[in-house]
């Protein structure tokens, strides 16, 4: 084999390893790491405030408010705050009608979730701040199970587990569900071995004294949860704290959502970089494996495909041509399919492409502050 062919083969192998790293090799490494046990403590359970932001979530509000009423009944001392980000539907009116349950803070217009959460955190009086999303429903034992983990004084933040509903409605929903099950298992292993590297907005909590200051342009879920690690405390995951959310079923909605999230995530990464560099070696390894490698997955797939094409050309131009034609046909069939393996593969490729597009967008100085609910949810 010629030197150039060896180079392309090496590039192909490294690209495959990089794409599989967050979902195969990284979990294998985590499983052999020792367990870092939590230390039980004593004393009264801390007080809590639950916060969420909403924009045009009128369709979700009846179920959300009923869910909050159930939580308040189970935990009477719970404070609940909501921020309305200039909704043009009945979201604010529905929340305001439950003034004895939820304290509503109205925004001046579209200012974004990060701005809204900061407004709510400034008003909250609980020892622990619990963050969730407007379209998420929490299981009845959520509050007690979350607060119990704060008995360990070294624990500064606690995540819950997100369970998606509507998995079988489309290939996009099925891929999203599979991805999130893998993500939840990764967080379980990260928690067992020390720290989880960042939270999503479905359900997480921190001690109020650790809540940081940050600009409105960053991803508040990542920024706030990482502040726990930067303060020298543990960020852990509670398997028995369950949040439930409906999956996005349409490819267009999911693509736009992933571009938006990735753009804000990379922008947030840039903002947090000085503090990330001061983390210990294990946490830096976790962060790079679960986040940075994944953000560039689209680039690794493209690089691997080009290396495979170059190898095929060196063997036989006709073989390369046939391979390209087969790939194009399969891609076209997958785009048209409503379900099945081909549709799932196409949705995975689309997800990687959207994530990489968002990263490139952020690298060019662009980010996203406001959001819109997915119509296909």
Structure description:
- The chain has 377 residues and is an alpha/beta fold.
- The protein has a domain at 48-251: Spore Coat Polysaccharide Biosynthesis Protein SpsA, Chain A (Alpha-Beta Complex).
- It is built from twelve helices and eight strands.
- It has an eight-stranded mixed sheet.
- Helix 1 (3-31) crosses helix 6 (171-192), helix 1 runs antiparallel to helix 10 (297-315) and helix 6 (171-192) packs across helix 12 (341-363).
- The longest helix is centred in the N-terminal third of the chain and has 29 residues, at 3-31.
- The radius of gyration is 22 Å and the shape is globular.
- Keywords: Glycosyltransferase, Kinase, Membrane, Transferase, Transmembrane, Transmembrane helix.
- It holds the Pfam family Glycos_transf_2.
